[in-house]
Structure prediction request, 423 residues.
Amino acid sequence: MRFAIVIFAAVFALTAAEYQSYDGYQVVTIKVDLPAKVDLLFQWQEQGIDFWDSLNSIGRPTRVMIPPHLLEEFPAFLRENEISYELSIPNVETVIAEERRVNMERRAIAMMKKANSPRATADFSYYWQTEEINQYLRELADEFPNLVTLEVAGQSYEGRDIYVVRISNSNFDGTKPKVFIDATIHAREWIAPMAVLYLIHEIVQHSADHPEFYECDWIIIPVANPDGYQYSHDSDRMWRKTRRINDGSTCIGVDGNRNYRYRWGYGTGISTNPCSEIFIGPAPFSEPETEIVSNELGRDSGVRLYLSFHSFGDWLLFPWGYDRIYHANHDQILALGNIAADAIYNAHGRRYTVGNSAILLYPAAGASDDYAAGEHHIDFSYTVELTGGGTTGFDLPPAQILPVSREIFTGLRAYAQNIADFY
Prediction:
């Protein structure tokens, strides 16, 4: 183990200088009391203010990261508009560097252990990188061919394989409702793929302990944006978008969760500026990553439940997101979501809030849950906003991977046990 840590220290020293620095960036926590102030705040996304939590007007804390060149102007705006705020992180770089150090140290130790294991090994003490995830899925499919089918659904913009995992103990014979899950369309949301991998690990490697999950068949894309996800590990921890080269711009990437065809480019919560974190792209499905999710959704009839994993905020959100309009199936979607949220709360004490995303938070068109509901007519479609990192940083410390994954696993059990009752 000492040797592994020495190797880690050497690698860390060699690569630390290659990362995007967030030295001088600060995070403040704000609370908004009026919808009009939300509209004012939203305009700052175009100027470089990074909203770590979703904008909302219901008094919940919202953390925003301020780049050094706006450290005077943005707080002045907050004061002028009577928006309360307090400093949460004086220097973002110190938080990111500590997360990187801990994650790399734990990864080095895990790799040493894995070298001595002949089986598919899942270690949830650190955040896995793209190829580690893919290797685990390949090993799992080889070891459990009676439960797992693994396919390459397509390639990302930079040519990385995007895997789809299909899990069933009845060979998808059409007798069970299907659950479709994708994760990691937003690259920096590292807990999203880990929570999905925990689900896969538990229901496959410990299938006898979880027979209730096999009341459904499962279709899962753990890493929908592998280019961005790997880039967030290698170069820029805060990277959110895909890695598309945008014609006529020096800014890279598209927000995959604004790139789906349903109501693409509609209303607010979007941007046509390639430099924006919520850039919708040049056309719907301009990103191979979103097109792959769409294609996989279209392959299977009988998908009753769609879940897209994100972070963070402890939300189970559902359509419509493009505008403040109730879905025709609103009451049933709310009821099923509340069953999952109550299960999480009763078992773990964590309260997930369930509701319409545009009304609870802020309208945003082109999202995957609207697309699943609007074009594939999946009545139960949710964006799962997993628990975030408290005051320590954008996402969870590695020590919180297992607790958060276990909490949402409880919610997924409730979904699996109850989805058939709603048809």
